[in-house]
Amino acid sequence: MINSHAHLDFDDMNAIAENAVAIVPSIGKQNWIDVQMYPYFSLGIHPWLVEIHTQQDL
After folding, report:
1. Among 10, 45, 11, 39, which Cα is nearest to 25's?
2. pLDDT for residue 9 is more than 80
């Protein structure tokens, strides 16, 4: 498992966001289908949403 939790809205992250080609958030199973249309994607679960997911989701 990779911890990819990042707050791109923080001031320190401006340089990263400005140089990104695309950032598509995937914070829970409700939008995993949407991001799978891109050639490169990762599926994630926001820490605040862990309780609504099951082990089967992983």
Report:
1. 45
2. no
Report if residue 32 sits inside a domain: yes
Which whole number is the average pLDDT over 20-47?
74
Burial class of residue 57 (count of CB atoms within 10 Å of its CB; 0-12, 13-18, 19+): exposed
Q: Show the domain range for 47.
A: 27-58
Residue 2 lies in a domain: no
pLDDT tier for residue 43 given thresholds of 50, 70 and 90: confident
In angstroms, the Cα distances linking 2 to 11, 15, 33 are 23, 22, 20
